[in-house]
Amino acid sequence: MSRRLLLLALTSAACFSDDPPQLTATVTSDDTSTSTTIGTTAVTPTTTTGDETTSTSTTGTTEPVVPTTSTGDTSTTDDTSTTGEPVVDPCMDKDPICPEGPSGAPGSGLEPLDRCNFALTRAPEWDNLGPLADALAETLPTRTIAELLTDLNNVAEPAPTVPGDVAALELAFRWDDEDFSKAWWVPQGLTGSADAYDDGRLEGRDVVLIGWWFAKELAMLSFDKGVRVSLVDFTDAPDLSLRHILLVEPVPGDPVDFKPVPIRAASIAWYGDTLYLADPTQGLRVFDMSRLLAVNPGVDKVGYDSKINDYYGGLYSYVAMQIGAYKPASDCAPRFSTVALDRSTSPPELVVGEFCDGVDACDGASDGRVFTWPIDPVTGRLPSLITWASFAAYTGESQIEGITRSQGTFTCRAAPRPATPARSTSSPPPAPASPTAGSTPPGP
Questions:
Q1: pLDDT the model gives residue 38
Q2: Can you list the alpha helix ranges (DSSP code H) found in 82-192?
Q3: C-alpha of 247 from chain center
Q4: Smaller CB count within 10 Å for the chain: N or C?
Q5: Which helix (H) or strand (E) holds 196?
Q6: Can you list the residues of the chain whose pLDDT is less than 70?
Q7: Where does the record place the region Disordered (predicted)?
């Protein structure tokens, strides 16, 4: 079985000016991956749009604050932000033209694209799921993500050694034997309190949030559990406590019900009360971290059981509800393989990367692109009904499994290219681990 380890790299706050300490990590397996810095972009309020430079519009305050969550998006028109301020973007007057492919050779670095070709729009899920989430929150007890810190029920174990040469490594841990043996749960994404909060801490605690997707065929179950996240408190390392939380989508019914999110991806980004999940074919799913539902963990099923009038969370005690989504506004649709958060910009920006292998994903292995979109620092959401990318480029890399940006520099983690020496970076971002079949009976 592949060894699945989580490597945590903490860098000094001095490396990031006045920003809080930044947390980056990677999930690794026995296979070797390549990490590389692929280029830089300006972190000033200007962005490249083809061969011209235009100012990037921001809305609301540009000082990061801890956002609050509401169940609906407050946008009302295409030219109004979530804070009520007018949004003026030159991309409004341009028709999208989808690029035909990179012109540079593989590994040649970033090739900028016209950002106006890549807009995200507020999806109907905000109107459809918001009322359902409200109804569930009125029916079931709710907890905030901070309250779960007093109800962690599992542990992780320190890892004395890690594969590869990871600079500035301060902490490494692995899952306990029970989680370690469950090959049907595949760790992929990582975010944490360093992303979510201005001071980098959740109620004074240092935590990470790990995303996993469910390999149904390995679990021998009749249903798909979808995606879970694990809240890990490493403040008192080497003592590490955690709890798993299932992500669910509300569905209408009498009473209102919920179902798993059955996608083979678990790349996540966390800001305040908002959790973003990259859905490769749909866009970005948005989950509410301020109202986690307390459910019955006693039976391995997900949703409402009319026979006993109770809700189940797949053997988990808490579920997080999807409350909205953002989807491409044109045919130039990105593949949402990975998502991360860049707090070094003002306002903060989501960083989305594409996995391309030229076989199952994209026409060519080096067709993968990277995009950034600003988020409103007050709401934690995209600032308007239609939000254009602040940056877009071909990466020149194949099989990108994770990409992030800080201080204008993108760092990606990619599967190795044949006959290409590995290039190292100080803090590689998340990458998925390959599952292997095990003999342990299915579990949560």
A1: 64
A2: 125-139, 177-180
A3: 13
A4: N
A5: helix 193-196
A6: 1-87, 415-443
A7: 27-89, 406-444
